[in-house]
Amino acid sequence: xxxxxxxxWSFSFExxxxxxxMIDMQxxxxxxxxxxxxxxxxxxxxxxxxxxxxxxxxxCRKLGVLIVHTQECHKADLSDCPPAKRLRGEPSLRxxxxxxxxxxxxxxxxxxxxxPALLPQSGDVVIAKPGKGAFYATPLTQELKxxxxxxxxxxxxxxxxxxxxxxxxxxxxxxxxxxxxxxTGSYFPEFKASALAMIRAQGAIIGWTAxxxxxxxxxx
Length: 220
Ligand code: TIU
Known about the structure:
- The structure is a single chain.
- With 220 residues, the chain is α/β, with parallel strands linked by helices.
- The chain is built from eight helices and ten strands.
- It has helices at 27-30, 35-38, 49-63, 83-86, 140-145, 159-172, 189-204, 212-219; strands at residues 2-4, 11-13, 18-23, 66-72, 98-99, 102-103, 125-129, 151-157, 176-185, 208-210.
- α3 (49-63) runs parallel beside α8.
- The site of tricarbonodiimidic diamide has 10 residues, from α6.
């Protein structure tokens, strides 16, 4: 049993029944020319998340925690992309348009792939998801249930959009959830801070938060 010094109080998990869910560490959100930048966001905010996420993945891998990578992307014919999503806002490129990393947020295109430092390894689970939450229209529930997973550790981008949505979905499904602060990020630092505060408020209403240093101290 691993016990992490967390907020609002300590979080304990058995590595064999836990998974790290690394949300959407894709080139389209983190690199220039991708979906995140086309929405007008400052992608430099996400750069520090990459080495922290790599460290968290390595720590979890060493502990024997299952690694799950999600990627927000759509079918080439956009049949799983509601017009309400594609037409939202005033991006310079919309989902499915041709950009500098191929078609934006389309499965199999370079931009929808993971950043080079965080490529999935053999034995990891990769979940392609059409929504912000990783449970909607994906096999994630089945992948976790079939392995007896009860505890989820979260990282990825962006904290208040896909990460928080997925953590809320997981909480409703009965998973005990912890998010590691440095391994997640937002284009808006104040949104990240608020999301983390919301998650741990009211006695861990959604889950727990911990620093990478405290997670590392617990697991080594
Ligand atoms: N725009 C934004 O902050 N996020 C997303 O669109 N997707 C994810 O968070 N992955």
